[in-house]
Amino acid sequence: MIWRRKKTTERRAPKSLRRSFVTPEGVDLQLDLGGAGERAGAFLVDLLLILAILIGGTLLLWLIFGNIEESGASAVAILWLLGFFVLRNGWFTLFEMGGRGATPGKRLMGLRVVARDGARLTGGAVIVRNAMREIEIFLPLSFLAFRGSENAADTALTVCALLWSGIFLFFPLFNRDRLRVGDLLAGTWVVHIVRSTLGRDLVAAQINRERWTFSDDALDLYGIYELQTLEDVLRRGETGAIRTVATSIRHKAGLPDHGDDYDFLFDYYAALCARLERDMLLGRRRADKFQAA
Amino acid sequence: MSASLGAEPILVNATRFRLANEADWARLERIVGTIEKKSVRALDDDDLLALPVLYRGALSSLSVARETSLDRALVRYLEQLCTRAYFQIYGVQTSGWRQLRAFVAQGWPDAIAGLARETLAALMLTVFGTILGYLLVRHDAGWFYDIIPDGLAAGRDPAASAASLRATLYDGGGDGPLATLATALFTHNSQVALFAFALGFAFAVPTALLLVYNGLMLGAFFAVFVPKGLGGEFGGWLLIHGTTELFAIMLAGAAGFRIGMAVAFPGRLSRIDSAVSAGRSAGVAMAGVILMLLVAGLLEGIGRQTILVDWQRYLIAFGMLAGWLVYFYTPRRRA
């Protein structure tokens, strides 16, 4: 069948959100872009915060000015209108102009807005990327509200309007870099800034027992990819995964099972790491197990 | 194949590398953490001086680690450390004041002056809309209700008497419902300005429609007041803040046009590069537009309620306009 063959031959590279990003010093930092889900999550958090502040502010105004007659009421209305205006337009812009380059929602998700060319994030760029929210979010919303308020409105027209505004809303899903229309115009993108601590050195760890040593044949089984996967398994420390991996390595290398899965893997990792590293420094980099040793 | 027990310690590069540099990385991490949590000002002089050196050290550690070590945790750690340090060193703003000064002295007028052609187009569309709106409503008063949304008229419609119309123009009380209406109008108009800008992305067509519509509303109001002999008075009432506000809306439309044109006709640049370069200058212009709208809001909220004499209103209106024009379009020396 044609379609099935096509599927197997045209194997596309996995769609990754890693982008190379070369600093002026010439080092590639390899940025992780924020995914669509995280971006939407961050936006929802911000939206909820804005709503919460709006409701809280309204209640506060009502508590303070609630019993004042006519003249007070209009002052309250003015305060409320201005507050709403500043919240709606200022929340994203002001937070992103700050040193952190992120709204509270983005900070929660570990995201940050940066300029695509690695330069400073300018105030102008922040204003552009957030002014575009008008057509991305508020336009579809106002169409929906319009539809809700006027039942007689032409359904076809509303659907067309929603489709048109939906293009902007779902724009990030249609491009590789997850750019909003605002990001596109402002020359920014949203990256993942993780904080991690330095994991302990697995090879040099002190142990109060004698190490297993392995024959060359046993160490020739795997390459760098497998080594680093093994590292992840060890660092995560899930008993089930360790059991599975240890069994499979023992089986392949033809080694007896002494029931000490973690110690076995620990020593195997150290030995494999030392060996692969030595080979690498000698110019023989073995990417994975499919490459000849 | 067999496994046996041995005692000799295993040494790899990553271990030695970690031992040699770990202290520096930890210090850089502490410094970057401080900047992220507080600000650069929270650092003492020693740390501030050490920051660039430590950053470059960490970058070179990253390069070395990638090439000589198989310890993925180490590479990941260095990647995130360098990335965080990079954005604290290269990605942050200069101080707010310096930025503001550069914006007022250079960025703002340059960005607006660069939009001159688009601004002219926006002006022509608005004037066209105004004349059209005026003629339509004069021809048939029914058009008024089609053009003006219900909430905006607030009693100022063709059916109102001359006396009540006059009252709406000189209702000086700062705490009447009119003050609320003024605020509502200000937020509404600012939203229109932002909208006109954002819609420019769709090849500028919706922006043009929005500007014409804005003109239509203007013309419709004029058509209500002029036949009652209140044209001049209405002009004063409108223009005291209107010269600033309408100008701002036109500039927002112009910024939208610039982006729409850059996307539609990118010329020799790629479409995205063209959009980005247009977006940069348009963004600066929009920051200025927002400030202008704030000024317009103040004029509307305070100036119009306290100044009730026509010639004074006109004086402020044209004084503001002249001020903006001189500020934006006077040729100045390039820095």
TrEMBL record, chain A:
<feature type="transmembrane region" description="Helical">
    <location>
        <begin position="152"/>
        <end position="174"/>
    </location>
</feature>
<keyword id="KW-0472">Membrane</keyword>
<feature type="transmembrane region" description="Helical">
    <location>
        <begin position="43"/>
        <end position="65"/>
    </location>
</feature>
<dbReference type="GO" id="GO:0016020">
    <property type="term" value="C:membrane"/>
</dbReference>
<keyword id="KW-0812">Transmembrane</keyword>
<protein>
    <submittedName>
        <fullName>Putative RDD family membrane protein YckC</fullName>
    </submittedName>
</protein>
<dbReference type="Pfam" id="PF06271">
    <property type="entry name" value="RDD"/>
</dbReference>
<feature type="transmembrane region" description="Helical">
    <location>
        <begin position="71"/>
        <end position="92"/>
    </location>
</feature>
<keyword id="KW-1133">Transmembrane helix</keyword>
<dbReference type="InterPro" id="IPR010432">
    <property type="entry name" value="RDD"/>
</dbReference>
<feature type="domain" description="RDD">
    <location>
        <begin position="34"/>
        <end position="187"/>
    </location>
</feature>
Automatic annotation (TrEMBL), chain B:
<protein>
    <submittedName>
        <fullName>Putative membrane protein SpoIIM required for sporulation</fullName>
    </submittedName>
</protein>
<keyword id="KW-1133">Transmembrane helix</keyword>
<feature type="transmembrane region" description="Helical">
    <location>
        <begin position="311"/>
        <end position="330"/>
    </location>
</feature>
<dbReference type="InterPro" id="IPR002798">
    <property type="entry name" value="SpoIIM-like"/>
</dbReference>
<keyword id="KW-0812">Transmembrane</keyword>
<feature type="transmembrane region" description="Helical">
    <location>
        <begin position="277"/>
        <end position="299"/>
    </location>
</feature>
<keyword id="KW-0472">Membrane</keyword>
<dbReference type="Pfam" id="PF01944">
    <property type="entry name" value="SpoIIM"/>
</dbReference>
<feature type="transmembrane region" description="Helical">
    <location>
        <begin position="192"/>
        <end position="213"/>
    </location>
</feature>
<feature type="transmembrane region" description="Helical">
    <location>
        <begin position="120"/>
        <end position="137"/>
    </location>
</feature>
